[in-house]
Design a protein that fits this description.
With 83 residues, the protein is mostly beta strands. The protein is built from 2 helices and 5 strands; from the N terminus they run E-H-H-E-E-E-E. The longest helix has 7 residues.
């Protein structure tokens, strides 16, 4: 709704978080966003802490392709963690 989004690139140790956000567990979306695993990005988006990378940008276009939507994003910030 705000025209921005963030893609969080998880590492292999974050599989459980990926499962939560894929809807494979019974944890509600509200509860997931209340966990202390977030920081706020430069565009105000929630960024997962301790990921391999965060890509934050502006949604330029949304295309419907079959049963899915494809988001075309202009990346404004990339954070890559060296750890």
């Amino acid at each position: 709704e705000n025209g921005h989004m963030c893609v969080n690139i998880l590492n292999h140790e974050q599989e459980l978080i990926a499962r939560h956000f894929a809807g494979m567990t019974k944890i509600s979306m509200e509860e997931r966003f209340n966990w202390d695993i977030w920081q706020t990005g430069m565009l105000g988006q929630p960024l997962l802490k301790e990921t391999l990378a965060n890509l934050e940008g502006s949604i330029e276009k949304i295309q419907e392709v079959g049963t899915h939507y494809v988001y075309l994003i202009e990346i404004k910030q990339i954070i890559v963690r060296q750890e």
